[in-house]
Specification:
single chain; 223 residues; alpha/beta; 8-stranded mixed beta sheet; two-stranded parallel sheet; 23% helix; globular
């Protein structure tokens, strides 16, 4: 199941899952007249019920919400789905936010705190993502993985077919200017591949992991 199946990332994950032979069902909160897909059910994630999850092995939560009116889904929506999953074998993968990554080995500071990476207007969204991660970290009977794209997450870049996996620490540029960053770039296409690999190999239970492919090919561009 892919929640947010009409979104740019959800659509990519769904297409790749189909290509790799999975039976896929999508969830979207509204219909897109120009992109109707018979595999997609129009249903708000808050309305999902146990009956909707019968036969589901894994859920990719790729909901995209960026405004004060919608961003609550990254915490409250996540909490609703998690409540349905307690005690089940279903693997829940949440597409996370790089703002939640620690920036020191002692794990006392996160990337959200660096204003050149996350300016003031993004703080509410960063905080909601942190709340969602905290909900998952408090769950002991849910098979979850918080899959964080690295800082530069490019929707339009081509697939390279490769990516790397690291944990919950990000190394920002020593100047604290993202233009000077390294190992901080991945495309949606490569991220989608990583998500499917995690599902197929049943990896990283109850962990936060980060996917990256290398340096940003356009250092002054943000995604």
């Amino acid at each position: 199941m892919i929640i947010g199946a009409y979104g740019r990332l959800g659509e990519r994950v769904m297409r790749l899952a189909n290509k790799r032979g999975h039976q896929v069902i999508g969830i979207a909160h509204r219909q897109h007249a120009e992109r109707q897909n018979p595999q997609i059910i129009i249903k708000d994630m808050f309305d999902l019920a146990p009956a909707d999850l019968v036969g589901v092995d894994a859920i990719v939560d790729a909901v995209g919400a960026w405004t004060p009116a919608t961003e609550i889904v990254h915490a409250a929506g996540l909490a609703h789905v998690v409540a349905l999953l307690r005690g089940t074998p279903i693997h829940y993968l949440k597409v996370g936010a790089a703002s939640t990554l620690f920036i020191n080995d002692a794990r006392t500071h996160v990337l959200q705190e660096l204003p050149q990476y996350y300016p003031a207007y993004m703080q509410d969204l960063c905080t909601i993502h942190a709340e969602g991660l905290a909900i998952l970290q408090g769950e002991t009977t849910v098979h979850w993985t918080y899959v964080t794209p690295t800082y530069n997450f490019d929707p339009a870049g081509h697939s390279t077919g490769t990516y790397h996996v690291t944990g919950d620490i990000f190394h920002p540029a020593s100047s604290q200017n993202p233009d000077d960053g390294h190992q901080d770039y991945i495309t949606y296409a490569d991220f989608a591949k990583g998500m499917l690999d995690i599902i197929e190999h049943d990896r990283y239970d109850q962990q936060q992991v980060t996917l990256f492919s290398g340096d940003n090919p356009h250092p002054t561009q943000r995604y």
